[in-house]
Specification:
single chain; alpha+beta; 3 helices; 4 strands; 54% helix
Length: 149
Amino acid sequence: MEVSTNKLLLKRPVNVKAIVTPRWKEEAQQQLQLQLNQLDQQLQQLEIQGQRAINEIQKQSIQPPGPQVMQQIESIQSQVNQRKSELLDQKNQLLQQLQQVQVLELNQEVNQGTIESVFTIEPGENLIQKMQVEILLRDGMVEEIRGEI
């Protein structure tokens, strides 16, 4: 038997899918709720920090405040509003994801992301088939590996 040394080591993306189970749904909802709570905290901190900065400028300036002071205050308020808008967009996306998770049917397969895998290829093998690999999880456990390993 002849041993071929004509092999190449490559990386490939491997799709990771999960089967929707009651446990998966619960964990996904908890994770999204945790992220929502963190965003709410960031929004509160943003409001407090913005107000503190404005109060500090007002304390240090003469009364009534001049145009330069008013411009500083407006600039801070504008920055706060822009960041607030970004956080609210993120919050809306999370709320949509939470709604999507709630309506998923049990035993449905959902994408969880991708990981990388290393594989060997040699002359005569089908590269396209070797690139099409995915892992199916059920509650974190590998249920199936699909494709050519």
